[in-house]
């Protein structure tokens, strides 16, 4: 979500009938409405995992995000997010679990992480990783890949963190990343999510547009300017990671 209320509301409106919402973390940072995003999701009864940005806000630590966006993340958290969230919001973020077990009906047992089983908060499980790399990240201990040791305990793994929407199979298990609602980085700036039908086992990736100008206007009203505003505009309007200024 990354504090993007307009993207979240557009997804909620487009999703239609649903029984349960699962959020793979990062309610805060980069966006102007982290508190409203928290309230909206709590009001909907969503099951939510703690992301690395939620963890950074809650505990006052570094987010350990990718080098390309770390400069932007640190500035935004210190100058915007921490001022927008109150003590109760931060306490709530700290209380979120790092994993969720889910029953996906015909798809079998599933487990959800923000990053990966090997690194729940920080593991980047990208769609282009080799099978042996992906399999290593799906196990609890990082180690050299040896096929007999790669025993995956669930039928489906829900992961986030990369802001890339994808699905793939590894060792007969399905990996699903719904992408990012508030800040896609796969060159499609529309809000991304996945709709899973547990009755028939279907997985449907979806994209929905939203009022990005309104989100950007809120950032401007908060005093975000210069290279930080330019970087956020690029992320929101083009879905690509900006270069760090000079």
CATH topology name: Purple Acid Phosphatase, chain A, domain 2
Helix/strand/pairing category: alpha/beta
Q: Largest beta sheet, briefly? A: 5 strands, mixed
CA(first)-CA(last) distance: 29 Å
CATH architecture: 4-Layer Sandwich
Q: What percent strand?
A: 15-25%
- The CATH first-level class comes to Alpha Beta
Number of domains: 1
In the CATH hierarchy, what is the superfamily?
Metallo-dependent phosphatases
Helices and strands, in N-to-C order?
Answer: HEHEHHHEEHEEEEEHH
Number of strands: 9
Q: Any idea what the radius of gyration is?
A: 17 Å
Overall outline: globular
Question: Any low-confidence stretches, pLDDT <50, length ≥5?
Answer: 141-148
Kindly state the mean pLDDT as a whole number? 92
Tell me the helix content: 25-40%
Gist?
With 246 residues, this protein is an alpha/beta fold.
């Amino acid at each position: 979500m990354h504090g993007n209320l307009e993207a979240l509301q557009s997804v909620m409106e487009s999703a239609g009938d649903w029984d349960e919402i699962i959020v793979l973390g990062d309610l805060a940072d980069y966006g102007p409405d982290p508190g409203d995003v928290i309230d909206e999701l709590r009001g909907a009864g969503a099951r939510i995992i703690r992301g690395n940005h939620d963890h950074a806000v809650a505990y006052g630590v570094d987010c350990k995000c990718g080098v390309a966006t770390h400069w932007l993340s640190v500035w935004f958290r210190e100058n915007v997010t921490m001022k927008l969230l109150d003590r109760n919001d931060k306490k709530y973020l700290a209380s979120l679990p790092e994993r969720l077990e889910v029953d996906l009906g015909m798809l079998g047992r599933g487990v959800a992480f923000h990053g990966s089983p090997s690194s729940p908060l920080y593991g980047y499980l990208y769609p282009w990783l080799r099978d042996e790399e992906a399999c290593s990240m799906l196990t609890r201990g990082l180690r050299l890949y040896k096929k007999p040791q790669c025993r995956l305990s669930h039928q489906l793994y829900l992961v986030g963190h990369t802001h890339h929407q994808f699905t793939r199979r590894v060792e007969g298990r399905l990996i699903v990343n719904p992408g990012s609602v508030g800040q896609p980085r796969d060159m499609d700036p529309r809000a991304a999510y996945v709709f899973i039908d547990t009755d028939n086992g279907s997985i449907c990736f979806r994209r929905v547009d939203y009022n990005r100008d309104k989100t950007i206007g809120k950032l401007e009203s908060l005093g975000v300017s210069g290279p930080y505003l330019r970087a956020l505009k690029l992320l929101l309007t083009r879905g690509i990671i900006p270069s760090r200024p000079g």
